[in-house]
UniProtKB/TrEMBL annotation:
Entry keyword DNA damage: yes
Catalytic activity reported: 8-oxo-GTP + H2O = 8-oxo-GMP + diphosphate + H(+); 8-oxo-dGTP + H2O = 8-oxo-dGMP + diphosphate + H(+)
Keywords: DNA damage, DNA repair, DNA replication, Hydrolase, Magnesium, Metal-binding, Mutator protein
Superkingdom of origin organism: Bacteria
Residues the entry annotates as binding Mg(2+): G42, E62
GO biological process: DNA repair; DNA replication
Keyword Magnesium: yes
Protein name in the entry: 8-oxo-dGTP diphosphatase
Positions with a binding annotation for 8-oxo-dGTP: R28, E39, F40, P41, G42
GO molecular function (one): metal ion binding
Biological source species: Agrobacterium genomosp. 2 str. CFBP 5494
Amino acid sequence: MSEAGKKILLVAACALLDQDGRILLAQRPEGKSLAGLWEFPGGKVEQGETPEETLVRELDEELGIKTKIACLAPLTFASHTYETFHLLMPLYVCRRYEGIAHGREGQALKWVKPQALRDYPMPPADEPLIPFLQDLL
Ligand SMILES: Nc1nc2c([nH]c(=O)n2[C@H]2C[C@H](O)[C@@H](COP(=O)(O)OP(=O)(O)OP(=O)(O)O)O2)c(=O)[nH]1
């Protein structure tokens, strides 16, 4: 248990980049926690997976995008206490992948310029990640 008595939840997230340096955001669907907010694609790291394996799996499941572990570059991470857990979320950047992203789970998608990221309400854990992407791109 962490000091706050909350479990640490490990979630892997990815800033998928297109040729124009835009970043893919996905909108969390109704009925889920943080519904309506714009997030980086990704998900919980399952038992027996590395974060990189999680992302290769999730990008395919969520977006129909095929990529490889070698195409995922670590950028930074989020560490944020939510009400019922503490989120630890490594953020990777991916520039090399195959396929055209589409919301396979019905989620809205948006390619966003780094300078426009603040126009899209994101989960509180994500706010501190924005400057890292703006500096990178
Ligand atoms: N994928 C992703 N998850 C994020 C981001 N920011 C952030 O706080 N999260 C949180 C939301 C969820 O609590 C968790 C990711 O869980 P998930 O995507 O695998 O599962 P989920 O939404 O179905 O989970 P749940 O909250 O509905 O139980 O991480 C982000 O940028 N990307």
